[in-house]
Amino acid sequence: MSDEQIILDAVDKFLAKDVKPYARDLELADEYPTDIVEKMKALGLFGATIGHQYGGLGLSAATYAKIVERVSAVWMSVSGIFNSHLIMCAAIEKFAHPSTKETFLPRLATGELRGGIALTEPDCGTDLQAIRTRADRCGDDYLINGTKQWITNAVQGNILAVLVKTDAQAQPRHRGMSLLLVEKSAGYVATKLSKLGYRGVDTAEVVFADVRVPATNLIGERPGRGLQQILAGLALGRINVAARGVGVARAALEASLEYAKVRTTFGQPIGQHQAIQIKLADMATKVEAGRLLTQNAAQAYDRGGRCDMEAGMAKLFATEAAMHNANEALRIHGAYGYSPDNEVERYYRDAPLLVVGEGTNELQRIIIARQLLERGEV
Ligand SMILES: Cc1cc2nc3c(=O)[nH]c(=O)nc-3n(C[C@H](O)[C@H](O)[C@H](O)COP(=O)(O)OP(=O)(O)OC[C@H]3O[C@@H](n4cnc5c(N)ncnc54)[C@H](O)[C@@H]3O)c2cc1C
């Protein structure tokens, strides 16, 4: 058996035993899955893509995407607990000073430190160069002031990679933007937000009021590179959101297939009606295509170099597939799909996040088109 298969089997066992039986109740109660997080630590998921030298599993993006698909097919919120954490870790591992890597990566790999990325603000998400959170140099420290919005893991986690302005006057604006690692400390106040879906995992408003962090927490040798650093990390983020899309789309298909065999109308299972068969065929084709695009993007990421077009295509297609399949699953289940007693109701509430998070699908189309024009080939 390959190393990859051993890991995937361990993930499947964990999902069947420790996640599936509890997902529905925790999600409906919007309760943080503390026991599940402890099991994830033991499995090494918080270090999935972190290199061996820092105590991580050192998995390829291709294997990681397969894990994310599996987790999201059972409960998408659980994938959010380690996905945004690993985007932060990718930015540290790629760009931070060696001593910063030594300080943080081993504790991030075990899950002792857990967190995510804080980019979005109340007044801007897509247009990140418009952020207003500032970090002012004060001796050997930075003082951070500002507000971030919709930040996953900001309440239950203990560290964030925060996109800040270190030079508000810089032109172009991205030259004044930096990425700073901020551990929870005085002046950091996170307030959990309520959401349509993706419950259980915390998403918060975070106010930074004179939060002091050592200047050594800056990612990179000097300020002014934050936007490029986080955009590089977001390629992995988009691959994992694509994988989440495949997971939700697959779960919606599997539930629909089961239901189509047992629900009868007009004397036969609804799966025998061509109108339902057409839905199932389209749903299955979208899962397969989404998975192939996601693996294609993950392999491009693993080869190194630029992969924003591949990641954008995968994210766009697979997340629209999740929206489509969740909607079709609801229709196939008739009234029963409209009840929280049925998992397809959750897929219907979870899927819309995927077309917004890690860059909206409108933005993905812009990225794909720009790359097409720049590369001059498909
Ligand atoms: C549950 C949840 C969790 C999240 N977790 C995080 C997190 O951990 N960290 C984090 O930093 N953020 C997080 N976000 C925020 C998310 O990344 C942003 O919502 C997203 O980037 C979009 O930004 P916005 O909501 O401000 O929309 P806006 O940027 O205001 O966009 C509004 C609309 O305009 C469209 N639009 C914008 N610009 C253009 C353009 N140039 N051309 C065409 N259309 C355009 C958008 O596609 C969208 O349809 C989370 C959001 C949610 C809902």
Features:
378 residues, alpha+beta, Butyryl-CoA Dehydrogenase, subunit A, domain 2, Butyryl-CoA Dehydrogenase, subunit A, domain 3, four-stranded antiparallel β-sheet, three-stranded mixed β-sheet, 9 helices, globular, binds flavin-adenine dinucleotide
Overview of this structure, please?
There is one protein chain. The chain is α+β, with helices and mostly antiparallel strands and 378 residues long. The chain has three domains: 108 residues, Orthogonal Bundle (Butyryl-Coa Dehydrogenase, subunit A, domain 1), CATH 1.10.540.10; 109 residues, Beta Barrel (Butyryl-CoA Dehydrogenase, subunit A, domain 2); 148 residues, Butyryl-CoA Dehydrogenase, subunit A, domain 3, CATH 1.20.140. 54% of the residues lie in helices and 15% in strands. The protein has nine helices and nine strands. The protein has a four-stranded antiparallel β-sheet with strand order 2-3-7-6, with helices on one face. Strands 1-4-5 form a three-stranded mixed β-sheet. β8 and β9 form a beta hairpin. The chain is globular, with a radius of gyration of 21 Å. The two termini are 36 Å apart. The model has no long low-confidence stretch (mean pLDDT 97). The structure holds flavin-adenine dinucleotide. The site of flavin-adenine dinucleotide has 23 residues, from β1, β3, α8 and α9.
